[in-house]
Every structure is written in structure tokens, then in C-alpha cells.
Design brief:
Elements (H helix, E strand, L loop, with lengths): L5 H14 L3 E8 L6 E3 L9 E3 L6 E3 H4 L2 E6 L3
Length: 75
């Protein structure tokens, strides 16, 4: 997964949510130790650090970057 600076991803997430309130964004990052792709559980929330569910390592997302997964609810 390609990683981007957290502020850029947050801006893209805000823009998407502003255009469609049904959008939910989930922060993703790669573990800095084992490389496993991780997705945060909380929608529309961004964290500076993330813990890997595979190896337990804590990744500095502000330093390493992140991406996002977007879902769009159908009302």
C-alpha cells in the first residue's frame, strides 16, 4: 500500500466527507516492523500511532505515513 503524509490523507478524508456525509473513512497504515497492513476500527478518526495486530509493534504514523479506506453508505 502506498503511504502518504498523514495531513494529506486527513485533508482528502475531510473533502470526501464534506461532499457526502454518508462517507466513512478508516485510517490504514503499514506496520513499521513486520509490514502488515492495518486498518483502524474507528471511522472518521485519525491517530498518530497505531499498534499492529500481528506483531504488537507500535508504528509512528505521523513519521511513516498512512492511507485510508472509504465506504459509502446507501440510505
Amino acid at each position: 500500500m502506498k503511504l502518504y503524509p498523514i495531513k494529506e490523507v486527513m485533508k482528502s478524508a475531510d473533502d470526501a466527507i464534506d461532499k457526502n456525509p454518508a462517507v466513512k473513512v478508516y485510517q490504514q497504515f503499514n506496520c513499521a516492523k513486520c509490514g502488515a497492513k492495518q486498518t483502524m476500527d474507528d471511522a472518521n478518526v485519525f491517530y498518530s500511532h497505531g499498534r499492529c495486530e500481528e506483531c504488537g509493534h507500535t508504528t509512528d504514523i505521523e513519521k511513516d505515513g498512512c492511507n485510508m479506506m472509504m465506504t459509502i453508505g446507501i440510505g
